[in-house]
Write a structure and sequence with these properties.
This protein is mainly α. The protein has a single domain, classed as Rhodopsin 7-helix transmembrane proteins (Rhopdopsin 7-helix transmembrane proteins). It is built from nine helices and two strands. The chain has helices at 2-12, 18-42, 61-82, 86-108, 112-142, 146-172, 182-205, 208-211, 221-228, and strands at 48-52, 55-59. The chain has a two-stranded antiparallel ribbon with strand order 1-2. It starts with a helix and ends with a helix. The model is unreliable at 213-229 (pLDDT under 50). The chain crosses the membrane at residues 23-44, 64-82, 89-110, 116-134, 155-173, 179-205. It is a multi-pass membrane protein. It holds the Pfam family Bac_rhodopsin. This is Bacteriorhodopsin.
């Protein structure tokens, strides 16, 4: 995450286009926040023990704090790319925040029925967010031209695939049925997070849809003379 953060900073250092700078600012924050969250978990901060029945579960609430900040930023990148209105952006981010908060409530619940109920609530919110991306935002991006549409579709496909894996891993992991142990669960969440954040940013910031002519090479003297002729 930290390597991704520094890479995006270096890559965007000389960008002067106002819109491109907005994308860089948002995208740099995503792995930066995630780096802090994972560092806290590494040092044992941001975790709590929850007793469920006769079992004590280790819940990393720092992970949810990470998602509460980073997933809205990822969605903001997509919303800016599609150029949708503020109401649409607010609705999208609001439902996303509800998804994360209800997932955390489920993770901290002591009754199995409550845990699975909140998981279902959170999953429904996720489906709403993904549906919104695949329909109205996709249509808005398509109207902006083929380059924007292509980038948006690639990023949306990445989000659809990766975000769908999160509730599945939750339900089979220690916070759900316990099929997967804590070590494997944490590793898989880490892989998903790195791909969903750094991979997302890498695709977005290499796209001509947002960079426009900001990285275009300067014309040679010969080319300038030809143009003048």
């Amino acid at each position: 995450m930290l390597i991704g953060t520094f890479y995006f900073i270096v890559k965007g250092w000389g960008v002067t286009d106002k819109e491109a700078r907005e994308y860089y600012a948002i995208t740099i924050l995503v792995p930066g926040i995630a780096s802090a969250a994972y560092l806290s978990m590494f040092f044992g901060i941001g975790a709590s023990d929850v007793v469920v029945g006769e079992e004590t579960l280790r819940i990393y609430y720092a992970r949810y704090a990470d998602w509460l900040f980073t997933t809205p930023l990822l969605l903001l990148d997509l919303a800016l790319l599609a150029k949708v209105d503020r109401v649409s952006i607010g609705t999208l981010i609001g439902v996303d925040a509800l998804m994360i908060v209800t997932g955390l409530i489920g993770a901290l619940s002591q009754q199995p029925v409550a845990r699975y109920t909140w998981w279902l609530f959170s999953t429904i919110c996720m489906i709403v967010v993904l549906y919104f991306l695949a329909t109205s935002l996709r249509s808005a991006a398509k109207e902006r031209g083929p380059e924007v549409a292509s980038t948006f579709n690639t990023l949306t496909a990445l989000v659809l695939i990766l975000w769908t894996a999160y509730p599945i891993l939750w339900i089979i992991g220690t916070e759900g049925a316990g099929v997967v142990g804590l070590g494997v669960e944490t590793l898989l969440f880490m892989v998903l997070d790195v791909t969903a954040k750094v991979g997302f940013g890498f695709i977005l910031l290499r796209s001509r849809a947002i960079l426009g002519d900001t990285e275009a090479p300067e014309p040679s003297a010969g080319a300038e003379a030809s143009a003048a002729d």
